[in-house]
Design a protein that fits this description.
heterodimer, A: alpha/beta, two-stranded antiparallel sheet, globular
Chain lengths: 231, 94
């Protein structure tokens, strides 16, 4: 069973729930941020996109102090898979569960587009349904998605193989033109050192039906479900 | 009319200022946009702008040192993100 955490201001929570339960036939329940424990039998936690607490102070700064985040941190530390998309990524960085931070897009514009992404590694629990070097097309929609980490931290992230997805051209080339927000290293998705926490600026939950912008999101969400089913 | 008690209590409040700025190596596209517009307004001497946040915090009672250390704790844990930001705490007034 997957738990989708709802913060005041979350707006992709129902899409995430719909993708996991209705499209992919997984078990999924909504958990309000004021809860202090995850439901019994939780196999994975999903932090959705949106504008938790109106993005006041910094994106994710308020949400990471919500009561449920204590349980999410314990779950992550015990090795449980946690996926944060968009605002969820920002919450995970603010919570210290992922390295780096997400800054205002370098061109200052809110960006809403489909982007190509190169899969940098195939690994459980987030990318077992795809291959290293595969190109995924997923939507992005954010104003603060510019990934930043200090030079030292960025080196560690690269050395540890913590980059899961990079913005790229259709043929997989990494270029300035294909980087929609100025992220260092064209990083679109980053793992923690242990590989069980992932933050993504792109939205796999918005790309699970052919009639609505493609199905490449299943590569990520389906991998999570495979892990939950085999566990 | 304020009561005498309230006046005395207010008199003990300390107002602390916390200033949060981006670390020097963090790109500041907002500051850059402000620089460009400043120049287009005719202020051509404006060479660089870094923008940040300003917090004015009223702290009830206690000594100046206690108020400063409370503000520092708050800045460290919440007001600033140490990955991208620096902060400084300044006492403004009684």
């Amino acid at each position: 069973m997957f738990a989708v955490i709802q913060f005041p201001g979350s707006c992709d929570d129902r899409d995430m729930w719909f993708a996991m339960s209705s499209v992919l036939a997984g078990k999924c329940s909504m958990v309000w941020h004021q809860e202090s424990e995850l439901p019994a039998g939780t196999k994975g936690v999903l932090l959705p996109g949106g504008f938790s607490y109106g993005d006041y102070l910094r994106c994710g700064a308020m949400a990471q102090l919500s009561p449920i985040m204590g349980a999410v941190k314990r779950f992550a530390k015990s090795g449980g898979p946690v996926l944060g998309t968009c605002n969820g990524f920002q919450v995970l960085c603010e919570a210290g569960l992922l390295p780096g931070a997400l800054r205002r897009n370098s061109q200052l514009a809110f960006v809403c587009d489909d982007v190509h992404l190169r899969v940098e590694k195939r690994a459980e629990p987030f990318s077992s349904r795809t291959e290293q070097g595969a190109i995924l097309t997923l939507p992005i929609k954010h104003g603060e998605g510019c990934f930043y980490a200090s030079e030292v931290e960025l080196d560690l992230i690269e050395q540890n193989g913590q980059v899961l997805l990079r913005y790229c051209e259709l043929d997989g080339t990494i270029s300035k033109a294909s980087n929609p927000n100025g992220s260092l290293g064209s990083i679109a998705g980053v793992l923690n050192k242990e590989g069980n926490v992932l933050g993504l600026m792109p939205h796999p939950e918005h790309a699970v039906e052919a009639a609505f912008g493609g199905t490449d999101g299943i590569a990520i969400l389906g991998s999570l479900l495979d892990m939950a089913r085999s566990a | 009319m304020r009561s005498l008690l309230e006046f005395v209590r207010k008199g003990n409040d300390l107002k602390v200022t916390v200033i949060v700025t981006l670390k020097a190596d963090v790109l500041d596209p907002e500051g850059e946009a402000i620089r460009k517009v400043s120049r287009s307004l005719g202020y051509e001497a404006v060479e660089g702008v870094r923008q940040g946040k300003f917090f004015e915090i009223n702290i009830e009672g206690g000594t100046e040192q206690e108020a400063k250390s409370l503000a520092e704790d708050l800045a460290e844990k919440f007001l600033a993100n140490p990955v991208i930001e620096d902060y400084r705490v300044e006492r403004v007034e009684l």
